[in-house]
Design goal:
Order of helices and strands: HHHEHHHEEHHHEHEHEHEEEHHEHHH
Number of helices: 17
Number of strands: 10
CATH class of one domain: Mainly Alpha
Distance between the termini: 46 Å
Strand order of the largest sheet: 1-5
Helix content: 40-55%
C-alpha cells in the first residue's frame, strides 16, 4: 500500500493549494473562483511531509554528498559543483521547500489542530516542523525562525542564532511529545505517509530527533538519554517510493532517468572504505566484518556508480530519513563518550547484529580495540579506537543522507577518530549551504557579508 502513496499524495498536496469553493452555485460570487481557499489540517499533512522529503532526498543531499566523500561530479555542471563552484541561486529551491513548504505548512497545521483540540495532530505537525527547522540550522547556521510566517508584523524576519534555533527545536519536540499523549481525531490516517498517525511511533521519532540534534550541539549526555527512548525495530522513518514515475526514488530520478552520468561514486571516499577488492588497502572489513553484500547494495559493479538498479537508490527503494540504525549509532557514540567504552561497544554490537544493508558482522569484544587489536593497529587508546570505529560505521550506514554529511563537519577537529574525507580540490571542504539568493535579495536582515561555503557555522567554529 505504501508503495503507491507518493503520487497520490502529490495530488493531495496540490489539492491543498488548488481547492475551490463548492458551497453553492450562487454563494461567494464576489470572489475569484480560481483563487485557492482553506483546506482541512489533515489534508495538509502530506504536502508538508513531501516538501521536507524533497529537501532531505533531493539536490541538497547530492551537493552535500559530493562535498563529503559520498559522490563524485562526473559530467557537465556537476564537475564544477563537485569542485565547489556553487552559488546562492543553487539553494533557492531547498530554502523555499523548507520554509514555505515544510515549516510554514507544519505551523498552519498546528494552528488548525489546536482550534479543533486535536492534540495528536498538533504533535505530529510539531515533529515535522522541528525536523525541517533542525535541518535548516544544520545546513545554514543562523536562520530565521522567531519572526517567520507573520508578514504583517515581521516582513523581514531576523536571523536567529544557530544555538537559539537548536534550543527552539528541542522545545518544539518536547511539546510534541506531550501533545502526542493527548486525544487525536483523523478521518484518513493514510494521509500521514510515514506512520499513519501512530502516536507511539511519532513519539519515538521525536526522541530520536532530539538525540540527533543534541549530537549536533555536542550535548552527548542529553543525546544518549533521548536516544534511549527513541526508534526501535520497525519504527524507522522512511519516505515510501514505488515503480511509477510519480512515486519513484528521487535519487533514482537523477541518477538514471534525468541526468545519467552526471554524478557517480568513482573515486569517492566511501568506496575506498567499502570495496572488498584485495588490492584495496583502505578496506574497512576484517575477520569480523564482511562488507561485500553492503558494497553491492550501495554500488554498481566495481563501485563506479551508486546502485540505482536494485540497491539503495533503486526506483522503488524507500529513502531513510530517521532510522533505528541511526538511533543505535547515537547510543553507541554518545554512550562511548559519556557512559564508557563498555556501553558504546554494547550499542555498536546491537547495530552490527542487524547486519545493516546486508553487511555480515560478528560482535566485537573489548580486546579488538586494545592497542594491537584488529581495530587498533596504530596504537590509539582503546577509547579512541572504539570511537573511530563508531564514527566510521555512522559514515557508512548514513550513506546518501544529510546527517552522514554533517558528521564530517561535527567531528572535523577530532583528528585521531574522524572519518578523513579529503577536499576534492584545494585544502578545505565546504562547511555549509549558501543562503538562498532570493532571501539575500529580499530580506535586509540577511547576514552581511554573506558567509561562504567554507565558513563554519557558529557551532562548528
Amino acid at each position: 500500500m505504501l508503495k503507491h502513496k507518493i503520487s497520490k499524495f502529490m495530488l493531495a498536496a496540490a489539492t491543498v493549494f488548488g481547492l475551490w469553493s463548492c458551497e453553492s452555485l450562487v454563494s461567494g460570487l464576489e470572489k475569484d473562483p480560481y483563487s485557492p481557499v482553506d483546506a482541512p489540517a489533515e489534508l495538509m499533512i502530506p504536502g508538508a511531509q513531501l516538501a521536507n522529503a524533497l529537501v532531505q532526498e533531493g539536490e541538497l543531499a547530492r551537493l552535500m554528498g559530493m562535498w563529503s566523500g559520498y559522490f563524485t561530479g562526473s559530467d557537465r555542471q556537476y564537475i564544477s559543483l563537485w569542485q565547489y563552484a556553487s552559488n546562492a541561486g543553487d539553494f533557492d529551491s531547498p530554502w523555499e521547500n523548507l520554509y514555505q513548504g515544510a515549516i510554514a505548512q507544519a505551523q498552519l497545521i498546528q494552528q488548525k489542530a489546536a482550534r479543533e483540540n486535536n492534540l495528536q495532530m498538533r504533535g505530529i505537525a510539531k515533529v515535522m516542523e522541528a525536523h525541517a527547522l533542525g535541518t535548516a540550522a544544520m545546513l545554514w547556521g543562523d536562520v530565521p525562525y522567531a519572526e517567520i510566517n507573520d508578514f504583517e508584523k515581521f516582513p523581514n524576519p531576523k536571523f536567529d542564532a544557530q544555538a537559539d534555533v537548536y534550543a527552539a527545536v528541542q522545545r518544539i519536540l518536547s511539546e510534541a511529545i506531550v501533545d502526542l499523549k493527548g486525544q487525536g481525531r483523523f478521518v484518513n490516517k493514510e494521509l500521514d505517509i510515514y506512520y499513519q498517525t501512530d502516536a507511539g511511533k511519532w513519539t519515538a521519532l521525536a526522541h530520536t530527533l532530539k538525540a540527533r540534534f543534541y549530537m549536533h550541539t555536542r550535548e552527548y549526555t542529553n543525546a544518549y538519554n533521548a536516544a534511549s527512548k527513541g526508534i526501535t525495530t520497525g519504527g524507522s522513518m522512511m519516505t515510501p517510493h514505488g515503480i511509477a514515475l510519480g512515486e519513484a526514488n528521487i535519487y533514482w530520478y537523477f541518477l538514471d532517468w534525468e541526468r545519467y552520468g552526471y554524478m557517480t561514486t568513482d573515486g569517492a571516499h566511501i568506496v575506498s572504505l567499502m570495496n572488498p577488492d584485495s588490492a584495496n588497502t583502505s578496506y574497512r572489513g576484517n575477520a569480523k566484518t564482511d562488507e561485500m553484500k553492503r558494497f553491492n547494495y550501495y554500488f554498481m559493479s566495481d563501485g563506479f556508480e551508486p546502485n540505482y538498479a536494485d540497491g539503495i537508490f533503486a526506483r522503488d527503494a524507500d529513502y531513510a530519513l530517521v532510522t533505528h540504525e541511526e538511533n543505535l549509532l547515537i547510543l553507541a557514540e554518545a554512550g562511548a563518550r559519556t557512559q564508557g567504552e563498555a556501553v558504546g561497544l554494547k550499542h555498536l554490537n546491537e547495530l552490527r547484529a542487524l547486519g545493516p544493508s546486508g553487511a555480515v558482522m560478528e560482535p566485537y569484544v573489548a580486546t579488538d580495540f586494545a592497542s594491537g587489536g584488529m581495530e587498533n593497529t596504530d596504537g590509539l587508546t582503546s577509547a579512541k579506537a572504539l570511537l573511530r570505529e563508531i564514527l566510521e560505521e555512522r559514515y557508512v550506514t548514513l550513506f546518501g543522507t544529510l546527517e552522514g554529511c554533517y558528521d564530517v563537519r561535527r567531528t572535523q577537529k577530532e583528528a585521531d577518530v574522524r572519518v578523513k574525507v579529503m577536499p576534492n580540490i584545494g585544502s578545505n571542504i565546504p562547511q555549509r549551504a549558501i543562503y538562498s539568493q532570493k532571501e539575500i535579495n529580499a530580506n535586509p536582515n540577511a547576514p552581511n557579508p554573506v558567509p561562504s561555503l567554507f565558513d563554519p557555522t557558529p557551532i562548528n567554529r
